[in-house]
Structures are given as C-alpha cells and as structure tokens.
C-alpha cells in the first residue's frame, strides 16, 4: 500500500520526559511590624491633645473661669529639716543700753602671683549688714555698788563700764554682689565645693563691723541711756537725787 500523507503513521520517537526535580519554595516577603507607624501617630496625637487641654485650662484660670484649677506643673517645695536641738541655756544679767546697725562692703580676692587672673582667681564682692549691742553686765556689780541715803533721798550707783558684743550679721539684708573665678577655679569647683571662701567673707564682714562699732560712739550712748533709765527708776521710787558712776575698765 502506498504511503499516504493522510494516514497517520505510528510514532517512532517519543519526546523526552524530564524527571521532576526538588520543589523550591519562593522566599517569603519580610513581615512588617504591625501598627508601628500607627502607634507613633496615636502617641503624638494624645500628646498634642493633652497640651491643648492644659493650655486651655491655664487660660481659663487666668481669666478666672476656673479659679480652682491647679497647675499640674507648679513648683513644689519640700521641707525635710530636722527638729531643732537645744544645745545650751544660760542666765543673763545684761541691760542692753544701745545697739547700732552697720553695713560694710567686703571685696575679698585670692589669687597667685605671676599667674593670670583668668586662670587662678577668687574674688567675692559682699555687702554685709549687722547689728552690734552695747550692754551693762549687772552680774559684775560690786558689793558697795549701791549707796542709799534715806534722809536726803539720794542714791549713788556705781556700775561697770559698758561692754560691746560681737556683730551679728543679718542674712536677710546681706548679699553677694558679684563673684569672679578663674578657669582653673571653675574646673575645681565643678568637682568639689569650697564653703571656706564664703565663711571667710562672713567672718571678715563681722570683724569689720565690730571694729567700726568701737569708734562709732556707741559706748557713750550706752552710758547715757543707762543713766537715764536708772534715774527715772529711782525718781519714781521717791528719791530726789540719783548719781550714776561708771568704774574704769
């Protein structure tokens, strides 16, 4: 039989069959942190709303709409001081006859020779105010200090001379005007404090005021005031003549 192109011929060759290889899984897409951006937006939103509420409340309080609203960021002072300890007591027999109030400007500087001030320098300008008392110590009266003449209604009193106390600084009226420190002093103060410098300024102010009081006429004023006080006292008791004498120191 003649071959015809219309007749299917039997297959002589089979197509090659490819054996299946191992299945490779596709890489998974990286997971995103759920809600990170949204959480940040929520926090910012809450902060803005809170700030607006606080500002609005402060504004309403300023115009007396909410007078009872307290500032949540107001300053707070806590006193943790310990109880006062009584150290000593003493009996005094003093009559304070006069006192004087003084003010001194202390300019204390500490530096090194041949070293520039911008490196080593400690200078304090301090205004000190203090009070000095002048008193009579009646515990020093002698046994014959008082002589009374009932017939002539006269009294003679011998007193010790007035004494001057130490100046007492008034810290409410004393203050530091300015302080200058060198570069190395600033570095040193950053690691350790030096309270001795401030103490020396206080002591110097106290010493200057005490010395100035001795030449201020406070002693004579105390004598005059003591004499007036005793004269008035004994005159009210019926004595016509009162003589007050001060012994030599």
Number of domains: 2
Helix content: 25-40%
Mean pLDDT: 78
Low-confidence stretches: none
- Strand percent estimate: 15-25%
Care to count the β-strands?
A: 8
Shape, principal axes of CA atoms: elongated
Largest sheet: 5 strands, antiparallel
Rounded to the nearest angstrom, the distance between the terminal CA atoms is 170 Å
Radius of gyration: 48 Å
In DSSP terms (H or I, runs of 4 or more residues), the helix count works out at 4
SSE run = HEEEEEEEHHHE
- Structural class estimated from helices and strands: alpha+beta
Characterise the protein shown here:
With 249 residues, the chain is α+β, with helices and mostly antiparallel strands. The chain has 2 domains: 38-72; 94-246, no CATH class. The chain has helices spanning 36-62, 183-191, 195-214, 218-236, and strands spanning 94-111, 121-137, 146-149, 154-159, 163-164, 168-169, 175-181, 241-246. The strands form 2 sheets. Strands 1, 2, 5, 6 and 7 form a 5-stranded antiparallel β-sheet that branches. It has a 3-stranded mixed β-sheet with strand order 3-4-8, covered by helices on one side. The longest helix is centred in the first third of the chain and has 27 residues, at 36-62. The mean pLDDT is 78.
């Amino acid at each position: 039989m003649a071959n015809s192109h219309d007749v299917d011929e039997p297959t002589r060759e089979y197509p090659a069959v490819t054996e299946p290889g191992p299945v490779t899984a596709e890489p998974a897409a990286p997971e995103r942190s759920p809600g990170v951006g949204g959480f940040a937006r929520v926090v910012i939103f809450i902060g803005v709303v809170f700030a607006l509420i606080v500002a609005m409340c402060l504004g309403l309080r300023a115009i007396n709409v909410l007078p009872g609203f307290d500032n949540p960021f107001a300053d707070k002072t806590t006193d943790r001081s310990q109880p006062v300890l009584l150290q000593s007591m003493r009996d005094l027999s003093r009559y304070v006859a006069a006192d004087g109030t003084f003010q001194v400007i202390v300019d204390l500087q500490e530096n090194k020779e041949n070293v520039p001030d911008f490196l080593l320098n400690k200078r304090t300008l301090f205004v000190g105010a203090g009070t000095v008392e002048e008193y009579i110590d009646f515990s020093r009266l002698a046994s014959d200090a008082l002589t009374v003449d009932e017939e002539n209604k006269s009294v003679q009193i011998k007193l010790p001379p007035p004494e001057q106390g130490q100046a007492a600084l008034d810290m409410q009226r004393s203050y530091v005007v300015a302080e200058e420190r060198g570069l190395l002093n600033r570095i040193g103060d950053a690691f350790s404090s030096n309270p001795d410098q401030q103490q020396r300024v206080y002591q110097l102010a106290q010493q200057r005021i005490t010395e100035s009081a001795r030449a201020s006429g406070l002693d004579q004023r105390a004598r005059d005031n003591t004499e007036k006080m005793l004269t008035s006292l004994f005159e009210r008791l019926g004595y016509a003549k009162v003589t007050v004498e001060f012994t030599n120191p």
